[in-house]
Amino acid sequence: MGWGGRRVNSGRKRKNQPRVAGASVLRHPSAPTANPVEPEKFDPPEDLDDAARAVWVERSPHAAAIGTLTRATAFAFARYCRIVVLERNESKGPDRAGPNHRGLMTALHTLEQGFRIAPDGRPVARVMPEPPNKLDRFRRPPDPPV
């Protein structure tokens, strides 16, 4: 052993660690799946005002289609709708691009990334066909009907 002590992650790997070179074993959460889940349809919360409800109606289909809007995330999406209304009002006022407006823009950007309704350069999860079985080429074809 040289100077400075042991290096992080040096030495023999544990047996329970996967050994894959150059690729992550964990799938990305937005990776396409073979079995898509039908998005659940539900109404916006009752406490939304008319402007926030209009934002919900406009943007919820996109988040529901991706799968990020569920009953569990509805509260956060309602907050997103309210922040959109606040930002629109702030952008019309004299303090446009002021500290309050910039803070609202930052909050909107964070929530849009969380709900995957902002462009982020990653493909949206789509339904992929089942991958072909690698052993099919070794199997005997079925006998023709007689």
Question: Can you offer a commentary on this structure?
Answer:
- With 146 residues, the chain is mostly helical.
- The protein has a domain at 36-118.
- Helices cover 36% and strands 0% of the residues.
- The chain has three helices and no strands.
- The chain has helices at residues 50-66, 74-92, 99-114.
- Helix 1 packs across helix 2 (74-92).
- The longest helix has 19 residues, at 74-92.
- It is flat.
- 9% of the residues are buried.
Question: Could you give a quick summary of the protein structure above?
Answer:
36% of the residues lie in helices and 0% in strands. By secondary structure, it is mostly helical. It has a domain at 36-118.
Order of helices and strands: HHH
Count of helices? 3
The biggest sheet amounts to: none
Principal-axis shape: flat
Contiguous uncertain segments of 5+ residues: 22-30
CA gyration radius, whole angstroms: 25 Å
The amount of helix comes to 25-40%
Distance between the termini: 74 Å
Arithmetic mean of pLDDT: 78
- The counted number of beta strands is 0
Class of secondary structure makeup: mainly alpha
Q: Helices, strands, pairings?
A:
Blueprint: H1 50-66, H2 74-92, H3 99-114
Helix pairs in contact: 1-2, 2-3
Main attributes of the structure:
mainly alpha; flat
